[in-house]
């Protein structure tokens, strides 16, 4: 296999040319009041804050699941190597014009086979540096907030990663359960030269998502707690101001809009950056993360001070770099002596990574790791007797999803003991990737990894028949409602229904089907019925499921911890929890069995109906 990196699609650009190509605007028409084209005189300074977020293990513009250069319909490019080109260009542009701070808003340690390999296969250690740490050190960050995915591989791996960084990981709302004091640095204060003879003290507060307590419960329970962002900011922003901070910037791994992907599982909102700006005085700007949205510039008025607080969120995976400009003026007392810096205005924009080439130093730092991971994901682990696509798994019971169900259920059954070992075993699975496919013939690690793209672990919980029905009814909210009598619809007309907790449409990963291991679990989903009354003819082994009947349900840790807000499973008794990673279970099963044959595990056990008629999918 060739180890050559992909030839760039673009011309190398640096400096002013790179910024122009990336969409940089020196003085936009909608600049905030008081923000001039350039700092005005010796009493003014412009602080530039550069930012990335949700890098998710992407260093190069590479899709390891496809083993090809990354591409999407929007023409975006990804990776920290390209982001660094933009960051260096802004630093060059700002040279002599004011200080520059560089931040990240979290979720760096998980998301690609590159990240996974160095957390699980060749584990990072004193002698093995994580590629993300090497790349981020070259960028020269001043600080980074902890993201919720930083905790996926356990505290020990996170602490090792932290030790490899040249900058602090901040988490003001990651606290010790006993003392309630932060177990990571809550903030850092940078004293920077301004060129005016007076230095500027920049406070950087880091906050993460309280959902860590749910999503990584197995890793953090009893060791760390995650209070709300607003609550902790109210403690630390005044402290930072008392310590002489002229400016306070928050790096928040929490979206700008107060929605939640798991409902009301916690007392704290998942996406709270706007609330921070609105409710906590003393914050000047927020680098937003977590939501995977692009917010080039937004202002939120603080309800106590009336200050217009700047929010900016660059697009994920290194697709964009945030540029926030804050202009300050030195306020003097009556005797003419310099007293303090006052914020005059702030504005922001995002720069597009698809306009520049990758930074050569970053590429060189990770090229060996990149090659190692390419070899790993392209290694053949078995064969499939036929082509098994996942594309229609959102509307049909397809064999490739049954494969996930079968492996999960089998692993849970083997882990049962005592009276639970006699219970029927079921499994849940969602169609994570419509593009996943097992080709006929050789199957590689990346084929399997492309089917199961999350680093979830497997658990077994005990549920009743009534809870099973409730679970399926909740899952069936994923489907849009057909008019009575309609029996044909397209995939788009059926899926991703808008709900109160999913205003942008229910994601595919929140549609679970349920599978029976030793006997089929069969049911119809009536998409002409209202949500909550859609499950028809629920039976196990051909016998209607009774409310009091007991089952063991194989679930992933995200679901069992409350992810998606599904009923019952987060409070049901846990009967198996071997901390086995589901993706690795799938890979290990293929290695052990060598052949994937749908005849072993596949059957059509659920279907979409309209009334008593099957639904015909038109595409």
From TrEMBL:
PROSITE patterns reported in the protein's UniProt record: 5_NUCLEOTIDASE_2 (PS00786), TAT (PS51318)
Domain Calcineurin-like phosphoesterase: 48-293
Keyword set, alphabetical order: Hydrolase, Metal-binding, Multifunctional enzyme, Nucleotide-binding, Signal
Coiled coil stretches, renumbered: none
Subcellular location: Cell envelope
Signal sequence, start to end: 1-31
Main location class: other
Protein's name according to its UniProt entry: 5'-nucleotidase C-terminal domain-containing protein
Provenance organism: Nocardioides kribbensis
